[in-house]
Amino acid sequence: MSRLTRKVEEALLGAALFNPAALPSMRRWLPSAVFSRADHQALWQVLHAIDFTTVPSSQIPATVSAAIAEQIAEPGLRACLSPARLAQLANACPTPGSAPLYGGMVLEAAVHRSVERAGEELRQTAREAEVDQAAQALARVEGTGQRLAALGAAWQAAPETVRNLLDTAPEQPVTLAPRTERSRVDLRAEAETVASLLYQPAQLDEVRWLQRGDFADPQLAAVYQAMATLHERHAPIDPLTVAWQAQRQSGAQPSEQVLDELDRGGTPGTAVHTGEQVLATAALDRLDGAGHQLRNLARHPALAPASLVGHSDHALQPVAADRERIRQAERELAPADQEPAPAEPATQPATAAPEMEMDL
Fold this sequence. Notes:
About 60% of the residues lie in helices and about 0% in strands. The chain has about 350 residues and is mainly α. The chain folds into three domains: about 5-95, DNAb Helicase, Chain A (Orthogonal Bundle), CATH 1.10.860; about 105-170 and about 285-315, no CATH class; about 185-280, Orthogonal Bundle (DNAb Helicase, Chain A), CATH 1.10.860. The longest helix has 30 residues, at about 100-130. The protein is elongated. The protein starts with a helix and ends in a 27-residue tail after the last helix. This is DNA helicase. Keywords: ATP-binding, DNA replication, DNA-binding, Helicase, Hydrolase, Nucleotide-binding. InterPro entries: DNA_heli_DnaB-like_N_sf (IPR036185), DNA_helicase_DnaB-like_N (IPR007693), DNA_helicase_N/primase_C (IPR016136). Pfam families: DnaB.
């Protein structure tokens, strides 16, 4: 919790102690969970439990203290809410009449904290999941999207006058620090996939769910894109046609050495299996990237709640697209449900290949 957030929470509590009549209007849109400290949450709950319409203004401090002693069982919390502390809160409030605005500021800080926690949880999920658990890991995005929707609804529940004062656009475009490196890379699977496709281009029909952006190695990505483009045109695919097509594309260009190694290292029939690993690895990396972006967005104080929720939802869209591509790959792989059989000997029956469950 920042020092400014703490001061705003204290100002709201002080305003409520100074003028409890403002409490009923905030009950609907400002729950105790928006406060960052346990003692602040407890005091907010106590204040809402008291019927101040029957309490004279001179008796407010004693009434609140008695309610704290009766309703709060935790000794540590009671100690934090001593009569002296309550008096300090009431006297330190700059403008008691601004309680609704202070409430909006407290809610805004809570939205930022919640988005930051969501980002950290996504990053943790992405880094702890195994490659064959990518589908389950990406399913977390659905819950994150629901959390963002709930945050947006909570903000919309605030009074329009409060939202109009706080939902302002930043004066300058929001720029976020990018990640310095990818969290997940499987260069071996990438090279094996591209080499197999170069050796047996007909497999490109079986990996339509694979995209250039799934490859961490820029040269392998360029080769894959060139092959995919040639395949769409029904053009021959070999190292020369791939090199020629790659020079028309933007970005990195594959070297002769890379193309030669791919040409010599291809194994037929393995592109689907290794391509699935490439997709899963890239999807987990993008999940980590989405979490990184949510965290950094939440740490940007210039973003008002509506903008923060909107930007965060947009950051999740690539992950949702990856989840759908993994589902597509699973549907296409479901009938076989096994690793590709070894290419040699050519006469070996396919049933001799050991089966392996695909959990992606």
